[in-house]
TrEMBL record, chains A, B:
Catalyzes the first step in the biosynthesis of NAD from nicotinic acid, the ATP-dependent synthesis of beta-nicotinate D-ribonucleotide from nicotinate and 5-phospho-D-ribose 1-phosphate. This is Nicotinate phosphoribosyltransferase. GO terms for molecular function: glycosyltransferase activity; nicotinate phosphoribosyltransferase activity. CDD domains: NAPRTase_A (cd01570). The lineage of its organism: Bacteria, Pseudomonadati, Pseudomonadota, Gammaproteobacteria, Pseudomonadales. It is an enzyme of class 6 (ligase). Belongs to the NAPRTase family. Residues 385-441 form the Nicotinate phosphoribosyltransferase C-terminal domain. It comes from the Bacteria.
Length: 459, 459
């Protein structure tokens, strides 16, 4: 695990829950190394989401390919006293040797549909649970939120501004990737640009203005320090007064070959300010200068501003995006569905699961819009397009990773298949997902194996 | 920046917003290296918080002490085309050489009260903004949430279970630290234990049960794999049936020297199940076995269960804690308050700030409970206990870091000073924070300096 200065380093194999290690010791001592099948899926959609968007697969595969305990980690475990020496020796040689099947990143998905399946000897498949969920949950969470913003913004420039209130370093970096994947144009987070090639955007902060004795001087100094063209932040003291200053400054800057590309609003009633500022800029001969808005922006506000016809050309979306503020977690899980060839399911109240290795088939109407999914078992052809494909075998990727641009293009095509009822910010008609008879039969079989009645076949 | 296998590695200096770098280039070209004062504070408390709890200072100081651009980072910046060679040479030598004043970790604080002040040459103080907010915001967010849980749980065992749905690796690790600091007993996240010495807790997952053909066998195998004592998860199929299995198993385990320390419930009506299970355990001679509950637990549910007298001895708190689900972000900022000896403030609508270097004085009543704060300027003695102290000078800590146990003990003492109206889960009487005349006068002076009227002195 080498430090790479232009990326977030992997956190190592101790980023797991303690019980994964105590359970592994139990499996090890009983020789329970048979093939296990786990699937990652999300339960019921929250009221403020019409679909989920799959993301995080590339990091999940990186994690599985790199899985191993370092000497320092093994030493630390040895010092804890609850793990026996033969088990720690076993951990030293543990690698991920299994298979992975998954939905492609950027695929919309719905409740109970798995987006990733791990098939591996039980201890391997168990150990990876915590970090796999941590990776898939967060990126799918942000991609799902970002897709909502993209759909309502209808082509306006969208930039991730969320680093400072994202939950730590990795969240800040990966949120920018997830947002770009979902259709954002870029991010302000430099490391996301350096690690993933996501285009970088940035304007200026209030502190730059405040550090100067006058706003005019601050605008002029900032413009001269950037080659070519500049976006100026105009809400530090009085938005419309500042817009007039921008107009007055433009000819002087033009004489130095500097173009005012646009202005940024960051507070107040963004729609009202945008209309006034647009008029000031137009009247001042800056009809080409764009208006970019930020400050507590989310998809609900953008939808309203777009509907009102506010003359805003782009948005910086920060906290609401990077924390998925209206739904900061998805009710997701990674559950054992089969062990040693037998189907398994849990029956806990409100959390029962569908057993077996599953496939999701999606049907499309004549316009190419998706119109219904079927959740069934692998090998049971329910008709339509299967969404879950093999991506890893014997612990190695089957294909080189797609580029992020490829994933983004595929995501755009996928979002274009969503019916109009799912594309807005409000709750749409629920998307139909049916469970195939083959899967219902297997659920009854799984219950019979552990001595439960079949009356509760549906989760 | 060396990889340390038992900690989350720092993400490097590119974890920042692009505009910090473009602004720095502007400062550099104009020779704006005078002393700047920035303060980090939070705006209005959300309706579901009665106080904030300061956390993250230790990581913030680590970040400042280690600040530098690596050769690889400088090369990358050079390749971007928008930064000029003399500026990149300047970045190569940039270190943090300033002062920091701060509230101690574990101090309750309120709207507009700074918890950290940076005094440094403008480019240094500016560059660190994004990561400082990222660190202080997240840990204060989680500590503030955790403190609510601690206050209502009234001494019951509390364990952080949130890694899987925390927002990435760093969030998972630091959430466990913030929760422990606030009074939790431990975490399930192994790396949090390895990095910070936070006590580790763990039981078993449903998959362990499901991987066995019978629940009884799974319990027995798990118990034998752990030396001494064990907590068994009993909700995989039928909670009360499983409780009877535990009772039946206990004598056989006792014969092998294994004690059943407790059981865990993870679904359904936790209070109702706990009452039934308590009776089954008591009737079966397991009066000493504890009941631990998890599954969508937060402070609201714990408060209700405690009030109902549910026989639950401890809680695993996951998603709600690690995402601070009811308030997943705080409205916080890091703002320029003084530059080159002159007070500064922004005037943006709804976001105006108080200028100058500030101090917070806290008053206590005869019972030792805090009864009011005064926000004023450094050097203006408003009476009471000053909360902001020097912690770093010339880029180095003034004192060795306290241990996490020391911080936790201090936090407990601090939480004990909160008046009863702030200690519950519902909104209490707002805590009085008054602004001193000296600060109001400086705000008017700052406005006058940039040519604004004084009619809007209050933010």
């Amino acid at each position: 695990m080498a430090t790479h200065p232009l990326r977030i380093d992997p956190p190592g194999t101790l980023l797991t829950d303690l019980y994964q290690l105590t359970m592994l010791q139990g499996y090890f001592e009983r020789g329970m190394f048979d093939m296990a099948v786990f699937e990652f899926f999300a339960r019921k959609l929250p009221p403020c989401r019409n679909f989920y968007l799959a993301a995080g697969l590339e990091m999940a595969l990186d994690f599985l390919e790199g899985l191993r305990f370092s000497q320092a980690e093994l030493e630390w475990l040895r010092g804890q006293g609850q793990f026996k020496a033969p088990f720690i020796d076993y951990l030293a040689g543990l690698r991920f040797t299994g298979e992975v099947h998954a939905m492609a990143e950027g695929t919309p998905f719905f409740a109970d549909e798995p987006i990733l399946r791990v098939t591996a000897p039980l201890p391997e498949a168990q150990l990876v649970e915590s970090r796999l969920i941590n990776l898939l949950h967060f990126q799918s969470l942000i991609a799902s939120k970002a897709a909502r913003v993209v759909l309502v913004a209808a082509g306006r420039l969208l930039v991730d501004f969320g680093l400072r209130r994202s939950h730590g370093a990795e969240a800040g970096v990966y949120a920018g990737r997830a947002a770009y994947l979902a259709g954002f144009d870029g991010t302000a987070t430099v490391l996301t640009g350096a690690q993933f090639g996501v285009p970088l955007y940035g304007t200026m902060a209030h502190s730059f203005i405040q550090a100067h004795d006058s706003e005019d001087k601050a605008f002029e100094h900032f413009a001269h320090s950037l080659p070519g063209s500049v976006v100026l932040l105009i809400d530090t003291y009085d938005t419309e007064v500042a817009a007039h200053k921008v107009v007055a400054l433009a000819p002087r800057l033009a004489a130095s070959g500097i173009r005012i590309r646009g202005v940024r609003l960051d507070s107040g009633d963004l729609g009202a300010h945008a209309r006034k500022v647009r008029k000031i800029l137009d009247d001042g001969g800056l009809g080409d200068a764009t208006i970019f808005a930020s400050g507590n922006v989310d998809e609900y506000l953008i939808a309203r501003l777009v509907e009102e016809g506010a003359p805003i050309d782009g948005y910086g979306v920060g906290t609401h995006l990077d924390t998925s503020a209206d739904a900061p977690a998805l009710d997701c899980a990674y559950k054992l569905q089969e062990y040693a060839g037998k189907p398994r399911r849990k029956h806990s109240e409100g959390k029962a699961t569908w057993p077996g290795r599953k496939q999701v088939f999606r049907r499309f109407d004549a316009q190419g819009l998706c119109c219904g999914d079927t959740l069934t078992l692998e090998g049971d052809n329910a008709g339509g397009t299967p969404l879950i494909m093999p991506v890893m075998r014997q612990g190695k990727r089957l294909q080189p990773s797609p580029t992020l641009e490829e994933v983004r293009a595929r995501t755009r095509a996928q979002l274009a298949t969503l019916p109009v009822t799912l594309r807005g910010v409000l709750a749409g008609t629920a998307y139909p997902v049916q469970v195939a008879p083959a899967l219902e039969a297997l659920a009854r079989e799984a219950d019979r194996l552990v001595g439960l009645g079949s009356q509760e076949a549906a989760p």
